[in-house]
């Protein structure tokens, strides 16, 4: 399975394997800051077809400059750094330690923080995107007797007092497990983004679509958002996926497809709620853009009538919904002399408030 992961991330034997480095730290505090030491830096990298793991342990605080010098040597050969929450935690702490040690950290060309795709793909599925949880749920490698992260700083303090290396063995094991999990997770994310519909585990389809859209794979994003619409179990989730789907149509300059999708949704979304109102509003916009002003006015009037039945008093629905629909109906009806029951009701409500 490790070989599959390495192949998926494009670090097979035919590529420049020496320039990708997976990194994870254990620190003396979980809040960061200049008083926080990275006492253990775990690294994983490839030599040929072999995955090498290496751990730099700060045996005493006075040896920090020595540890950082070794780390700089590794970073000097790195072009692609991979972490899990490293953009917000690991890397800022290391940068601070380099500065305090009067050393210049080695820059890397690319930094992939796996926490972002992990959150998009699996948080709503499993209720968490902690690395140890993903190790079990996504990678099928549950950890047993793993030391909790909050205990690690205290265990290092005990080690400094006693110099008993055996007390740190659970921490070293935890760090190595995190490194291997990152490598495997990196491969899983790459596989999912290459073909989400071949995924072996449940996905958050909306999240997959967001990630593909960021990679400019707008056709793939549309397919994921459409799947998210079909599988949504709550109206707000369905509406959110529809909005993202419509945005991808716009990016691809597919106005006809965008209009057809809203028309289809208006036909199937029959519940009398604010989301149907918003769907009808989008249909009205699409018809107006297509030049069908009478059709746009009909559906806008339907949306206004429904809005007035749900929101009969001020404030008129979310984000001024009634007022917005009223303005649209009035503008679309200019010149045809036709009235609207909903528009008359909206006017009476406004008059009564005056």
What would your notes on this structure say?
- With 354 residues, this protein is an alpha/beta fold.
- It contains 15 helices and five strands.
- The chain has helices at residues 2-8, 64-76, 86-100, 115-126, 131-137, 152-162, 169-194, 205-214, 218-231, 235-251, 255-268, 274-289, 293-310, 321-333, 341-353; strands spanning 20-27, 38-47, 50-57, 80-83, 110-113.
- Strands 3-2-1-4-5 form a five-stranded mixed β-sheet, with helices on both faces.
- Strand 4, helix 3 and strand 5 (110-113) form a beta-alpha-beta unit.
- Helix 10 packs antiparallel against helix 11 (255-268).
- Residues 350-354 have low confidence and may be disordered.
Brief sketch in words of this structure:
The protein is of the alpha/beta class. The chain has helices at residues 2-8, 64-76, 86-100, 115-126, 131-137, 152-162, 169-194, 205-214, 218-231, 235-251, 255-268, 274-289, 293-310, 321-333, 341-353; strands at residues 20-27, 38-47, 50-57, 80-83, 110-113. The protein has a five-stranded mixed β-sheet with strand order 3-2-1-4-5, with helices on both faces.
Outline the secondary-structure elements.
Elements: H1 2-8, E1 20-27, E2 38-47, E3 50-57, H2 64-76, E4 80-83, H3 86-100, E5 110-113, H4 115-126, H5 131-137, H6 152-162, H7 169-194, H8 205-214, H9 218-231, H10 235-251, H11 255-268, H12 274-289, H13 293-310, H14 321-333, H15 341-353
Parallel strand pairs: 1-4, 4-5
Antiparallel strand pairs: 1-2, 2-3
């Amino acid at each position: 399975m490790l070989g599959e992961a390495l192949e998926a991330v494009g670090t097979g034997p035919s590529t420049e394997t020496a320039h990708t480095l997976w990194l994870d730290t254990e620190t003396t505090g979980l809040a960061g800051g200049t008083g926080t030491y990275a006492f253990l830096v775990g690294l994983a990298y490839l030599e040929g077809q072999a995955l090498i793991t290496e751990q730099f342990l700060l045996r005493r605080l006075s040896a920090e400059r020595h540890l950082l010098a070794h780390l700089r040597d590794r970073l000097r050969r790195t072009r692609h750094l991979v972490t899990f929450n490293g953009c917000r935690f690991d890397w800022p702490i290391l940068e601070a330690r380099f500065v305090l040690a009067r050393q210049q950290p080695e820059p890397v060309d690319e930094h992939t923080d796996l926490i972002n795709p992990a959150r998009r793909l699996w948080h709503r599925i499993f209720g968490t995107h902690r690395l140890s949880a993903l190790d079990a749920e996504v990678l099928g490698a549950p950890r047993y007797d793993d030391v909790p992260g909050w205990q690690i700083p205290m265990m290092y303090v005990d080690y400094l007092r006693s110099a008993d290396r055996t007390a740190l063995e659970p921490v070293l094991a935890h760090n190595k497990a995190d490194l291997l999990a990152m490598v495997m997770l990196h491969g899983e994310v790459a596989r999912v983004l290459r073909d989400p519909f071949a995924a072996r585990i449940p996905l958050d389809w909306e999240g997959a679509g967001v990630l593909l859209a960021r990679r400019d794979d707008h056709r793939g994003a549309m397919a994921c958002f459409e799947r998210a619409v079909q599988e949504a179990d709550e109206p707000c989730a369905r509406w959110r996926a529809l909005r993202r789907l419509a945005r991808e149509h716009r990016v691809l300059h597919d106005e006809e497809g965008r209009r057809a999708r809203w028309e289809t949704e208006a036909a199937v979304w029959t519940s009398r709620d604010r989301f149907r109102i918003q769907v009808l509003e989008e249909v009205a916009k699409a018809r107006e853009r297509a030049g069908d002003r009478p059709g746009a006015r009909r559906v806008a009037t339907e949306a206004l009538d429904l809005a007035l039945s749900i929101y009969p008093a001020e404030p008129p629905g979310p984000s001024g919904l009634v007022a917005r629909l009223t303005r649209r109906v009035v503008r679309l009806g200019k010149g045809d002399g036709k009235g609207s029951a909903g528009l008359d009701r909206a006017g009476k409500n406004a008059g009564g408030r005056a």
